[in-house]
Amino acid sequence: MDWNRREFVTSAGAAIAAAMAPGARPGSVGAAPAYEVYAAKYAGPVTSKLAFLYFNEGWDQDIDRYYYVWALKGNGEAIVVDTGTGVSMAGQRKLKGYVNPVDVLRRIGVDGSNVTKVVISHMHWDHVGGMEMFPSAFPKATFYVQRKEYDFWIKHPVAKRPFMRTFVDDAGNRGLTDLEGTPRLVLVEGDLNIGPGLDILYAPGHTVALQTLGVETTRGRAVVAADCGHLARNFKEDHPSSLITDLVGWLETYDRLRRWASSVDLLFPGHDAGMLRSYPMVADDITRLV
Question: 127, 147, 146, 148: which is closest to 270 by C-alpha?
Answer without folding.
Answer: 127
